[in-house]
Amino acid sequence: MPHQNYFRAPARGFTLVELMLTVAIIGMLSGLVIIAIKPSKQLGAARNTERQVEVAGILNAVAEYTNDNGGVLPAAIPAWGANVSCLTASAAAYGICRSNANCSSGVNLTVLTAGGVYLLALPVDPLQADSNPLTGYQIGKDANSRVTVCAPQAEGGASIQVTF
Fold first, then answer.
1. Is 70 left (phi over 0), alpha (psi -120 to 50) or beta?
2. Strands, E, within the chain: which ranges?
3. What 8-state DSSP symbol labels residue 40?
4. Per the domain annotation, does 21 fall within a domain?
5. CA–CA gap between residue 87 and residue 162 (Å, rounded)
6. The whole model's pTM is what?
């Protein structure tokens, strides 16, 4: 009598679920590797987002101050010189000072922080050195009194500026 084999060897190959899990895991790992390879790009983008928020906050404070003072801008905001834009302007002439105490050059906007009405403190660019008396942001107005605030230290070729 021939011998019957009641036990079969398991079928060879992968199931569809196993293949899908493998592809998903490889996809997640490759995504992490790409992020790990270019952390400076990711960090630069995060700092640029912070700059966009801070530039908009400064301009919003200027707008609120102007509305509360009968349409009069803060006196310290300088007019742009000929052929000067916010991103090409001199920090000594258009850079916003961190405080009144160390504002020998630059724009003194401490009227925006007085009493914490418009800003609690002037924001500082994420890469600005602590020893620098300027915030890393610049401000100026054109002939029509339109105010522009910008972040000249934006990374990755970004242009960050807003106008009111």
1. left
2. 95-97, 134-141, 147-150, 161-163
3. H
4. no
5. 11
6. 0.75
CA triplet 90, 154, 117: central angle to 5 degrees? 75
Identify whether the C-beta of residue 107 lies closer than 8 Å to the C-beta of residue 78. Answer: yes
What is the chain's pLDDT, residue by residue, as a tens digit (164 residues)?
566 666 666 667 778 888 889 999 999 998 888 777 777 777 888 999 999 999 999 999 999 999 999 999 999 999 988 888 887 888 889 999 988 766 778 899 989 998 889 999 999 999 998 888 999 999 999 989 999 999 999 998 899 999 98
CA distance 57 to 118: 9
Looking at the structure of the chain, the number of domains it has is 1
The verdict on residue 24 lying in a domain is no
Q: How far is CA 74 from CA 111, 115, 155, 161, in A?
A: 7, 15, 29, 19
Q: Does a structural domain hold residue 12?
A: no
